[in-house]
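Researcher: Let's run the pair from yesterday's discussion. Sequence first, then tokens, for each.
Model: Starting with the first of the pair.
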Amino acid sequence: MNSTTIARNAMAAALCFASIAAAKPHGVRRAAPPPDLSGGWSNLTATDFERPERFKHLILSPEETAAYEKLQNDPDLVEQDAKAQLAKAGRPPPPDVGAIHVEYFEKIHMLRVRGEVRSSVIVFPEDGQLPYSTSGRAQLKAARKREARDFANPESRPVEERCLLGAGEPLGPPLTPGLFNANYVIVQTRDVVAIEGEMNHDVRLIRLNAPHGPPQIRKWMGDSIGVWQGDTLVVDTINFNPGESYQTTSGGQYILSDQARVTEWFTRLSKTEIHYRFSVDDPKTYAKPWAGEMVLKASTSPMLEYACHEGDYSLRGILAGARRAEAEGRTPEPLDGGDPPAKP
């Protein structure tokens, strides 16, 4: 990543983060070694990626925070609320087991950044919603329809269903909060920063002070290059694999095209916190760049194996069920992924 690219990305990020308090400039990297990001971390939160309709502002009051945390930590209340939201949208409850039965979710506390309780990870645009272009919204709608109704072959199923990437793709980039298994281990060396996610088996490698690879090579999780600016690790990621264009996260889904560029900033605040922010520039999908931030908290929890139905026996069952339905002269029962909400 050359100085011109860094300057351009920094300018775009500055525009994205105009709605929040700006970080102090760090200047040139001093001669001392950079901060060490190594350790166990978690971004577990009850805050969704995009802002739910129930919240009108980025920063929540103590009363709003207490009420929402109480809701998220009571499975019965979550189920009642989910059914009410679906009914409000004119949609029936989903037929699949586990869609709104959330005993295994770990949405305990809302996200807190600089002492503020946040209603969404997204901070720009100010409404906390992804700024899809008309064509981008059509892409999202088509991807949701494929996930809900296309059982033709393994390649038509989402990557997490095929155990290629973790459910919710928590390693991104950008890093996104998961409903469970939201743990990471970071290992930092002179040349590479490696981030392992507990969800599935993924390890994302960020090469330091290196050039990007050729655009013909499209890696899972993209091609990430990092440089130190002051005490902040700045990561530039391009060349995303088209197989992961449709990504899921807490509270919804989003699209990253083959033209997407994601910039991330990792700043270690203390022994127990890393301030993490990001911006996404994807003119093929969005009308303007968008940005978000969160805090990674130090975690002493061990990283547990996530087998992801080893051998893909669940995928074989899904396709076998579809073939059985076809043999009986009926179409496979659709999983109603719903349509993206209309935007003005």
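Model: Moving on to the second of the pair.
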Amino acid sequence: MHDYYGVDYHRQLTPIKTTSFFLFGARGTGKTTFLKSFFAENLRVLWINLLDPETEDKYARSPDVLIQQLRQEKHLWDWIVLDEVQKVPRLLDCVHLLIEEQKKCFALTGSSARKLKRGGANLLAGRAFLNHLFPLTHPELGQDFDLNHALHWGTLPRVVTTKNETEKSEYLRTYALSYLKEEVWAEHIVQKLDPFRKFLEIAAQCNGEPINYSNIARDVHAETKTVQSYYQILEDTLVGHFLEAHHGSIRKRQRQAPKFYFFDPGVTRALARTLGSPPVHGTSDFGRAFEHFVICEAFRLSSYLRKDFSFSYLRTKDQVEIDLIVDRPGLPLALVEIKSTDRVDERHTRGLEKISKSFKKTESFCLSRDNTPKRIGAVNALPWQQGLKEVLSG
């Protein structure tokens, strides 16, 4: 169990305890809390927090200090945790040497892969496995899960455990500002902050829609290539992910606009300045928020289950759309329609059933708030929790 602000939640992430590993996740997802619980059982752990300015300065000036330190303290530590390792990417060369020389085990956390990727950092050539931590999922929250809360406020641990709505709102607004100041501006990722600030609001408002780079560029008074780079920054700093358009041809897929989903509904609403307007049942806003949440859960649970699945969406020329296509090696392609209704009927599955005939081997699912599983033609209409389980387990 992992104690988040006085509340215990069992996280589904299960790193292998005999091998070094990376643990990536956006700030606030609970990486440090997770590791403190993960290493609680009689393990001698050296914690190096690179968010501390003095510690960062010490190792940035001379990364070899780590080698000297661990050679002197060779028998003292079972594990070494480097918290926010992207702050000093050169430390990874030292980690590589120590793994080879002393067979040391490292846990390396990061809230941004950008500096590691852009700097050509040593990612240890498979000597450290890759793990991701996300906001709390509905199975992790168990009886504490509330769908309306998740759609409005999201599921970051601090938000879930805070009872006062004013505090929730202030935390999420502060989170958005901290992202700008600490992840973007302080790291000199962009040259001008104002266009990026405007971009963040517009990107959040366009969450889950096919990206029109040209239109957004006009709105933020920037070049199209600049907006494309902004989206890449969002992905590299782990605050969202692309959902590519599905097509059998990679070339044709690249010609169609991807969608972009922020990693948490609450953060999205904070960036879009809509925290004061919770999603209302029966509105298009509620439908978009529900689709956003279910797709985020699919990404999170697939990662925790270590599934080698790929995700995409499909929109035909006559604007018929499949919200999520899951390519599951060795299993039929899963076509998933997400509906926020609490009573599914053939009106909600007609387009999905029609499109499914264009594929050779598929399973079709309609995931909704309807608690009654049913079969409508060739479509499995399931409660969204059960549907996610079946889609991801095969």
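Researcher: Give me one sentence on the second I can quote.
Model: The mean pLDDT is 89.
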